[in-house]
Amino acid sequence: MIYKVDDKSLTAPVFISFANQVWKGNYDVEKTRMALSKTMNITAYDNEALVGCLRILSDGYYFGTITELLVLPEYQGQGIGSRLLQLAKENTPTVLYFGAQPGIEHFYERNGCKRSLQSYIIEKPKR
What we know:
The chain is an alpha+beta fold and 127 residues long.
């Protein structure tokens, strides 16, 4: 497995193809490109194939958040998510706050993350 911190070579089409295998969506290439340019992307590759990605959005001083941690289903349970999380801890410029999907809280706790603030969401009206 090859891990890259702040992977500048990650392209929107590669990320979209990868993300659709984990979290199906109708992702826009240009908006995805812009999103990737604003985050620190920590990636895991099996040879040339993207199999895991953790993205950090940070102001560089006060606040940082993990926007998502995704690992292809067939690679889950192999320590890839744990390694991506460790690399995030080692390379973030700030404290990281993030939400967890229900049912996987134990993964984060097992990896040394502490429960903190309750999470809330403000949804933007769909147009």
